[in-house]
Automatic annotation (TrEMBL):
PANTHER family: OS09G0431600 PROTEIN (PTHR47581)
The name this protein goes by in its record: CBS domain-containing protein
Keyword Repeat belongs to the record: yes
Domain CBS: 524-592
Gene3D superfamilies tied to this protein: CBS-domain, Tetratricopeptide repeat domain
Organism (species): Gossypium darwinii (Darwin's cotton)
Keyword hit for Repeat: yes
Top-level taxon: Eukaryota
InterPro entries: At5g10690-like (IPR044781), CBS_dom (IPR000644), CBS_dom_sf (IPR046342), PPR_rpt (IPR002885), TPR-like_helical_dom_sf (IPR011990)
């Protein structure tokens, strides 16, 4: 009997995979029906003292919200009102550009600052620009900028300092590019050496890089090198080592570093070496993942015994998560109650939606419908922060699951109906999708609420490499090519993979992003591209395409870096068009079969 793979992307009155024409020649325009305000021309008065500190604070706030357009608008208004702005304000604007990922705009602002009658640049300006170039993987530009500073030809004559090197080094490590990070240390590492050896901050960054690239054991091995060089580890060093041990699932080594940290702090009478809330939280996550309830309880007791340790919301959340992972519902409830009690006097301790969802998952498993319902009702009035759409959707799914696990079929169907009416779709591979699938089995295809579409040609558990298209067949383009040379290709295909000079896929170029005929493709692509390994299941990739609305997913060789895809070579792609060709509606004959037979088919 053929295996069937079901998807629930849309309600019954919708059609699957309707693509709109996205290669439109019309350009976006901004219009408003509000009346235009007339302003009298204002001239800059030298006697007026500009309040630029308030403007800088405003720019920082807008940067956190990623409102770059608003920042530029208010900066231009300030220039018209006050005249020339100072370097501090313009540095804040550059930081906003880097934070929002627009390094080209940051470069334009940098060039404006270097003009003769402008505010000028300083070391902070260069450090911010280097950080942006590192995040954008424009390493050649970053090195050229550093060399100009070293030669003394850079605008503003800044001195080559550790601040500049560390800014670029941290950006490279955050991006997981250890090869270029080591190259930077080889070229400019002489600045970072104290007494002939690298500083402890350099090793802290390197350990962070190894962890980010999925090599925690390499980070742990650096501890021996630190000892051989005679460097003194600080609190950040120990926290990073403990985090690496947790990532490597070596909790015995984590506890050794934890003990060494406390002994050294006590011996040297150094308060800056004592474990902080980050140390304890990291250990809680490790032992919670290992389901070691005794160690979790021991760490919680030690945290509460430390009078100088302030247990914040993150630490309380880690306690509850660890208790739940160990199966201690009673312990989790006790800590949850303590959070709510203390939150009455300190609003900063009010639980985030994540904590409510963690509790709801545990009680949904047990089929405690009343408890999940109470948590669902209190999620809005009692939680702190923004409740994302994904969190709201999961909360609804958990309420449906708890009703089904409790045997209240009517309540489960009622909640599923509300989910369909509110969210219009449900991911079949999600936890809620599995619950909806169980309800579908009970109702049968004749009473189906979701109108599923089937993938009869594939098995959801099979690896994606069985149906992927080889990379050569989609003809990837080099990122150095200009758009005008390949523009007809984008008329025919909605998305094209982009590769670098070494053949590695560095991004995807979408038709709607093509806006500059003379620009290289690498400046318009979306990077990094969505990647999966060759062993990833077809079901997971299908869910990615449906949920994230990806038009193409890159398939790379299976990596040994703890499941990460960084540094792996692309071997194929899977597109939304392929999925569209695999979809088939439910056959009429299948709808007439008995429910029991259908349940076997669906599962």
């Amino acid at each position: 009997m053929p295996h069937l793979h079901a998807i629930f992307p849309l309600p019954s009155n919708s059609k699957p995979f309707q693509h709109s024409n996205i290669f439109s020649s019309s350009s976006s325009s901004f219009s408003s029906s509000a009346p235009i305000r007339r302003r009298l021309p204002r001239t800059f008065s030298p006697s007026k003292h500009p309040n630029l500190k308030r403007l800088t604070s405003r720019i920082v706030q807008l940067t956190r919200r990623r409102q770059l357009h608003q920042i530029l608008e208010e900066t231009e208004n300030a220039k018209r009102e006050y005249g020339k702005l100072n370097t501090i304000v313009m540095n804040a604007v550059m930081e906003a550009c880097v934070h929002c990922g627009d390094v080209d705009l940051a470069l334009n602002i940098f060039h404006q600052m270097t003009q003769p009658h402008s505010c000028g640049v300083d070391t902070v300006t260069y450090a911010t620009l280097l950080k942006g170039l590192g995040r954008a993987r424009r390493i050649d530009d970053a090195f050229q900028l550093l060399e100009s500073v070293e030669k003394g030809t850079a605008a503003g004559k800044p001195k080559l300092s550790t601040q500049l090197i560390y800014g670029l080094l941290d950006a490279l490590i955050e991006a997981g590019d250890l090869r270029r990070a080591n190259g930077l240390l080889a070229r400019f590492g002489f600045l970072l050496r104290e007494g002939g050896s690298s500083s402890i901050l350099t090793y802290n960054l390197l350990m962070k890089g190894y962890i980010n690239t999925g090599c925690p054991q390499a980070a742990i091995n650096l501890h021996e090198e630190i000892q051989l060089l005679g460097l003194e580890p600080d609190r950040l060093t120990y926290n990073t080592l403990i985090f690496a041990c947790v990532k490597a699932e070596n909790l015995e080594a984590a506890m050794r570093f934890f003990k060494e940290m406390k002994d050294k702090a006590q011996r040297l009478c150094c308060s800056d070496l004592y474990p902080d809330v980050i140390t304890y939280t990291t250990l809680l996550k490790g032992f919670g993942h290992a389901k070691d309830l005794h160690s979790v309880q021991k760490i919680v007791l030690e945290m509460k015994s430390c009078h100088d340790l302030f247990i914040d919301r993150t630490a309380f959340t880690a306690m509850v998560d660890a208790m739940l992972n160990c199966g201690s519902i009673k312990g989790a409830l006790c800590i949850f109650g303590e959070i709510l009690k203390q939150a009455g006097a300190n609003v900063d301790l009010r639980p985030k939606p994540h904590l409510y969802l963690s509790m709801m998952r545990a009680f949904a498993d047990r089929g405690d419908y009343n408890m999940v319902k109470n948590l669902h009702e209190r999620l809005w009035p009692d939680s702190a922060g923004t409740i994302s759409l994904a969190a709201q959707q999961e909360a609804d799914h958990l309420l449906m699951e708890s009703a089904l696990n409790n045997g209240q079929i009517d309540a489960a169907v009622e909640n599923l109906t509300k989910i369909i009416n509110r969210w219009k779709c449900i991911s079949w591979t999600s936890r809620g999708g599995m619950v909806a699938l169980r309800i579908e089995v009970l109702l049968g295809f004749n009473k189906s609420m979701l109108s599923p579409y089937l993938l009869p040609q594939v098995l959801p558990g099979n690896p994606i490499e069985r149906i992927m298209l080889p990379l050569e067949t989609v003809r990837p383009l080099s990122g150095s090519l200009e758009l005008k040379k390949v523009v007809m290709r984008l008329y025919r295909e909605p998305v094209v993979p982009i590769i670098d000079d070494w053949g590695s896929c560095i991004g995807l170029l979408h038709r709607e992003d093509c806006c500059e005929m003379n620009a290289p493709l690498s400046t318009m692509m979306r990077s990094p591209p969505p990647c999966v390994t060759t062993t990833t299941s077809i079901g997971h990739v299908v869910d990615l395409v449906l949920k994230k609305k990806y038009k193409m997913v890159i398939v790379v060789k299976h990596s040994n870096l703890n499941g990460t895809t960084h540094g792996s070579r692309a071997v194929g792609v899977f597109t939304a068009e392929q999925l569209h060709n695999l979809v088939a509606p439910v056959p009429e004959g299948l709808k007439q079969k008995h429910t029991v037979r259908r349940s076997l088919t669906m599962f």
